[in-house]
Automatic annotation (TrEMBL):
Pfam families, alphabetized: ADH_N (PF08240), ADH_zinc_N (PF00107)
Enoyl reductase (ER) domain: residues covered: 23-351
Top-level taxonomic group: Eukaryota
Keywords in alphabetical order: Metal-binding, Oxidoreductase, Zinc
Family that this chain belongs to: Belongs to the zinc-containing alcohol dehydrogenase family.
Source species: Brassica cretica
Protein name: Enoyl reductase (ER) domain-containing protein
SUPFAM superfamilies: GroES-like, NAD(P)-binding Rossmann-fold domains
Known partners and oligomeric status: Homodimer.
Co-factor requirement: Zn(2+)
Length: 362
């Protein structure tokens, strides 16, 4: 059955989609639009698996549009360009993150913060301005306006660069915006998962002191030895948490599962900031005095604008920052989702689209 606006799309595409909130993915033939004057057609090479993909597949945010092709950590190669494209050439390796359009006129857009545009268009599970439903990077190709793509430097391994387009910018942006990036700053990172492990690497590259806070004591070895964090706290160990009270300039909380934040606020110095990245289902238990008495603050942050994403990618290339990944085939994706739901991944799944998607087409 044709979906909203699909009669205007004429280029066949192939990917894997979920048809309902079971979240089960299977082969899916669909159509994408013709390449516009300012657009590029991009052969997808790799696509990272974000926890948001799992939320959307299961309709846990009550906004899923089925059939749903996930994927917003896309690395690919430009195969076709519109006549007005000036930033990219055929053969360029490019990245596409969480948004593929915005209003281009609001204050956020004018300040290169398209991610906060109220009319931004999601890479998947969104409706484009032309009325067509967007499908993500678990597919053979995509079409994107050149304004919403970034160049991948040749020094970055393509597969491990993919998670930087969501997880990477999600950590980089708040470190920069909230003044936590640089020598003399002590950052706490809550959760050593897909976001947290990249955050540790960025913090170290900035010259900040970084302490990982986790409920899983077994992650201490990875945190300290592989990612070279300066410290590790078990969040359920009251003695450890008490000893670290008032020592951190800022904390970036990546955890989406329900958890207490009052102990985290206690770790902050006066005027410290707790920045939330994880979208927890239940409201937090928060006492006003925990903020008032130390002039502390709680904020949120969501990815970053395209200009800042390119800055982040360039910084990662310069400092050798990449995600720790497990590369998987397209056929393995449902197993990967089951593992992701259990937290069984070190530390980000990346699908090898170029080499494993086509063989799944019967």
């Amino acid at each position: 059955m044709q979906r909203l606006g699909e009669k205007y799309q004429s280029v066949e595409a192939f990917g894997w989609a979920a048809r309902d909130s079971s979240g089960h993915l299977s082969p899916f033939v669909f159509s994408r639009r013709e390449t516009g004057e300012e657009e590029m057609r991009v052969k997808v090479l790799y696509c990272g698996v974000c926890h948001s993909d799992l939320h959307c597949l299961k309709n846990e945010w009550h906004s899923s549009i089925y059939p749903l092709v996930p994927g917003h950590e896309i690395v690919g190669e430009v195969t076709e360009i519109g006549r007005k494209v000036s930033k990219f050439s055929i053969g360029d390796k490019i990245g596409v993150g969480c948004i593929v359009d915005s209003c281009r006129a609001c204050e956020s857009c004018r300040e290169d913060q398209e991610n906060y545009c109220t009319k931004s268009v999601a890479t998947y599970n969104g409706v484009h301005y032309d009325g067509t439903v967007n499908y993500g990077g678990y597919s053979d190709h995509i079409v994107v306006d050149e304004r919403y793509a970034v160049k991948i430097p040749h020094t970055l391994p393509l597969a491990s660069a993919a998670p930087l387009l969501c997880a990477g910018i999600s950590m980089y942006s708040p470190m920069k915006y909230f003044g936590l990036a640089g020598p003399g700053k002590h950052i706490g990172i809550v959760g050593l998962g897909g976001l947290g492990h990249i955050g540790v690497r960025f913090a170290k590259a900035f010259g900040s002191k970084v302490t990982v806070v986790s409920s899983t004591a077994g992650k201490s070895k990875d945190a300290l030895e592989i990612f070279e964090a300066d410290g590790f706290l078990v969040s359920t160990d009251e003695d450890q948490m008490q000893a670290a009270m008032g020592t951190m300039d800022g904390i970036i909380d990546t955890v989406s599962a329900s958890h207490p934040i009052l102990p985290l606020i206690g770790l902050l110095k006066p005027s410290g900031k707790l920045v939330l990245l994880g979208a927890t289902e239940k409201p937090f238990d928060l006492h006003a005095f925990s903020l008032i008495l130390g002039r502390k603050s709680i904020a949120g942050s969501a990815i970053g604008g395209i200009k800042e994403t390119q800055e982040m990618i360039n910084f990662a290339a310069e400092h050798g920052i990449k995600a720790e990944i497990e590369t998987i085939s397209m056929e393995y994706v449902n197993t990967a989702m089951d593992r992701l739901a259990k937290g069984d991944v070190r530390y980000r799944f990346v699908i090898d689209i170029a080499n494993t998607l086509a063989v799944t087409r019967s």
